[in-house]
Amino acid sequence: MPKRVVILGSTGSIGTSALNVIDALGDDFEVLALAANKNGELLEAQIQKFEPKYAGIVSEQAYSSLKETRNSNCCISSGSECLEHFASLPEADIVLVAVVGFAGLKAVLAAAKAGKRIAVANKEPLAAAGSIVTKTAKQYGAELLPVDSEHSALAQCLRSGNPMEVSKLILTASGGPFHEYTLEQIEAVKYEQALQHPRWNMGRKITVDSATMMNKALEVLEARWLFDVPADKIDVLVHPEALVHSMVEFVDGSMIAQISEPDMKLPIQYALTYPERVKGLCRSADLASYQTLTFKSPNCELFPAMRLCYDVCAEGGLKPAVFNAANEAAVALFLSRRISFIEIMEFVEKAINNYPAAGEVTAENIIDADEQTRRYVYSLKK
Known about the structure:
Blueprint lengths: L2 E6 L4 H13 L3 E8 L3 H11 L3 E4 L2 H10 L5 E4 L2 H7 L6 E4 L7 H9 L3 E4 L3 H17 L2 E4 L2 H10 L7 E8 L9 H5 L3 H4 L9 H9 L1 H13 L7 E5 L5 E7 L4 E5 L5 H9 L31 H11 L3 H17 L5 H14 L8 H17 L3
Parallel strand pairs: 1-2, 1-5, 2-3, 3-4, 5-6, 6-7, 8-9
Antiparallel strand pairs: 8-10, 10-11
Helix pairs in contact: 2-3, 4-5, 5-6, 6-11, 6-14, 10-14, 11-13, 14-15, 14-16
């Protein structure tokens, strides 16, 4: 029997890459359900090619257009509720969650409660609500597998030893477009500059997160819960060549690194076929062509997200949820050209300091903290 896959966020870069991987893997996998935000045209093309049993689109407007153009037997629904519904389909074997931002939390929890293998491509649910997600997955026998290239690398490296032998985890970062800037240059960054990543073509929110290094800060929080390792044992190194995707240092001083060409299809495939490896679409790395590999510590003065992520880890409680929500709101303000690039992290730090340290960590309280924080950040620009 082929493994039946649900892809939430099928029209984004991760979703389209996942479909390419499934297509290449042949009869071992089949697409059960697809869900998108508002790109009805691309979703329609995906439905025609992969013939899923279910499809959903969050946008009501896009849903109306999709209904008029479709000519398949696929059952199509609308609204954000379809994400949770598809995540818990009884016949689903694997749920790939590639929904951007905190919006993916409910789907991740629904898949966890249904005991699914969850391929987690968006870091925000684990960064903001890692204790709840991991507890729920353990309670219902769900399997959490990372699709982020860095966390997939860590998962692969960790197979070289047992947890008691791990000294620290080392996440690598491309550094984004500004890792060699001075503080004065960072303060002068323009809107267009922040949306031009030197290496990858990504969505706008993720591109801005890469520029502020918030993307890596969230990965620290994600790794803390995904691998049950305290934050003070998680390091970050800026590695512009993006060939070493992460490393694990063991207590005897040895380091194990995962090296491959930067291609998201590899960690996607590994999450689908785990624990096996199969031939796929990715080419091997030509190490001789790189000549040199460089590593350096991130500059926390230029990129305060790297300092703040360890602060909120230390404080715990609801602070990680506040950290994530404040960033999502501040990036939204930046993308609407209402604040400057440098103000993104200024607003995030204000939100962290504004929110009370105490608070029981429940799903309801995390969602409430998220909503309160967004309102606070938006109020800073009234």
